[in-house]
Amino acid sequence: MEAFVSAVNDVVWSNALIYLCLGAGLFYSVLTRFAQIRHFKEMCKLLFSPNSLDTGISSFQALAVSLSGRVGVGNIAGVAAAIGFGGPGAIFWMWIVAFLGASTAYAESTLGQIYKTEEDGQYRGGPAYYFDRCLEQKWLAILFAVSAIIACGVFLPGVQANAVGHAFTQVFGDGTMVSTSFGEVGSFKLVALAVILIVLAFIIFGGIKRIANFTQIVVPFMALGYIVLALIVVFLNIDKVPDIFSLIITDAFTAQAGFGAAIGWGVKRGIYSNEAGQGTGPHAAAAAEVEHPAQQGLVQAFSVYVDTIFVCTATALMILITQQYNVVGELPAGQFIVQNVDAATEVGSAAFTQMALFSVFGSFGEAFVGIALFFFAFTTILAYYYIAETNIAYLNRYFKGSIPLVVVKFVIMFMVSYGMVNSSGYIWSIGDIGVGLMAWINILGILAIFFVARPALLCLRDYEDQKKKGGAITFDPVKLGIKNATFWEKRLAKQSKDSQ
């Protein structure tokens, strides 16, 4: 089974997808005139725009929900894996993916807002909705919805739970071994699993509002605490920082683990971490209450910076400064190119990060990574559930029934259990397949949308023009030649009627 999963993963994550992700980011960066730089100040301002309505969530809550998906295991264990398999140079390619991916995140999240709908008192949107309404290709919308449900409901939750299990074992050990249907499992890991399942069940039955209220508190708090610890490590070793950045940049092109490995692992883990182009971010973006679709697009572009430039870089600097890492070569398999720590240390887990903090803060640092992983992973699982729920809601217009949503809830809890007790390599490969499937469909779709209608670009220009003129911000899709944006058409008609 592992060999089959690995073979599928190699096909999905071929060089074609890696360069397509980079190309899509460059494409939208040029077309938006690098809006991810020009509008950085506006991004920060929009974060704290209030929402007084009960239908949607605020921009900050939408950011928190999307960050709960972006800031997860990929930031801690994923960065360690990128260094372990791709060398320090992989971090440079993660930065490139983040910079270019911010424009992709703008485009897909703006599309999510333009083509969102109001269903059962909530805003719904995402790739399935904009493929349906903009491209008018229902088959592509259904294909993405099915792939998102499988990826977020089956493939991806196990990755998050797996990292939590390894982190707990690293801190507390195995405890008493217990015989289960999955094999022998440590009692401490089972306790962590029980806590996750109980809290997860409570929140996912409460809808997007409960998820948003939880993540808007937990995600910023844990991310800030994590970055503070990283800054302490950096300042204590400030003399090493220039050499570390030099190592990252030079190795990006000479690559200890091979140039292809550095790019491949950097791009793969970069996309896994910040999700730009993957098609997951637009779901939370569509749930936000905003005056103009471009506003939430810019907020989501900022979330890519938070994820990769801040959190991922924090992890990388801690690992590289303390030299708590190994680099494994591709050929011959298992040969170390760099070995600074015990050869038995699992490259695909968060062990490098925990060891880095342990070397500076002792047992507190190691335990903090375990706690951070718990919250990062848990909030990411919540985000995955919301994405699966949204795509089930889309499919319900064709296949009526409440059973699929109940099934997904139980499947996610099963996959969390399964991921908690299985090996990292196997689980990460399954997760990579899920990410790759959505990325292929979404990136090809948003590139096609540009050539068909260019709505995300029209939105940005309209928003920039209104900002220059001053006054109230509104969005009129008909005026811009954007078709099937029925939510905004109805809103504008209602506002015109109310003002008369």
TrEMBL record:
InterPro entries per record: Na/Ala_symport (IPR001463)
An example molecular function term from Gene Ontology annotations: amino acid:sodium symporter activity
PROSITE patterns reported in the protein's UniProt record: NA_ALANINE_SYMP (PS00873)
Keywords: Cell inner membrane, Cell membrane, Membrane, Symport, Transmembrane, Transmembrane helix, Transport
Gene3D superfamilies per UniProt: Amino acid/polyamine transporter I
Any one Gene Ontology cellular component term annotated for this protein: plasma membrane
Any Pfam family the entry gives: Na_Ala_symp
Keyword Iron-sulfur assigned: no
PANTHER family found in the cross-reference section: AGSS FAMILY TRANSPORTER, SODIUM-ALANINE, SODIUM_PROTON-DEPENDENT ALANINE CARRIER PROTEIN YRBD-RELATED
Family that this chain belongs to: Belongs to the alanine or glycine:cation symporter (AGCS) (TC 2.A.25) family.
Protein name: Alanine:cation symporter family protein
Organism (species): Pseudoalteromonas arctica
Upper lineage: Bacteria, Pseudomonadati, Pseudomonadota, Gammaproteobacteria, Alteromonadales
